[in-house]
From TrEMBL:
InterPro entries: DUF309 (IPR005500), TTHA0068_sf (IPR023203). It holds the Pfam family DUF309. This is DUF309 domain-containing protein. It comes from the Bacteria. SUPFAM superfamilies: TTHA0068-like. Signal peptide: none annotated.
């Protein structure tokens, strides 16, 4: 399957930890079909990670919950991506979030959170 260039760039930027850019890349193709809940889920995952980076734990929690809700209907694999692995990653991130709405930026940067390296199987 030939995937949109923005999707492949999203995977690359995600793996580089460029979550704001991830949002911009997927938003371009999601705007063409707002019923695509897979793209919306991946968008919300990247926004959640962006919030997490800056200490907005309430926003991260909200986005992770939405991402999980949308992505759960696409497993085990969709668009060459192991959705089950992504869902486990979301759960791992949620499990280590401090029980607060926000933390200072410096504290957020110093925290260790789970990591995930996305891979797209282009033979799907």
């Amino acid at each position: 399957m030939g995937y949109p260039v923005q999707y492949l760039q999203f995977i690359e930027k995600f793996n580089e930890g460029e979550f704001y850019e991830c949002h911009d890349l997927l938003e371009d193709i999601w705007m063409e079909d707002k019923t695509d809940k897979f793209l919306q889920g991946m968008l919300q995952l990247s926004v959640g990670l962006y919030h997490l980076e800056y200490g907005n734990l309430k926003g991260a929690r909200w986005m992770f919950g939405n991402a999980r809700k949308y992505l759960s209907r696409y497993g085990p694999v969709h668009w060459g991506l192991d959705v089950e692995e992504v869902l486990r990653y979301i759960e791992d991130c949620e499990a280590v979030l401090p029980d607060r709405d926000a933390i200072p930026y410096a504290e957020a940067k110093a925290m260790t959170f789970p990591s995930l390296r996305l891979h797209v199987d282009t033979s799907c």
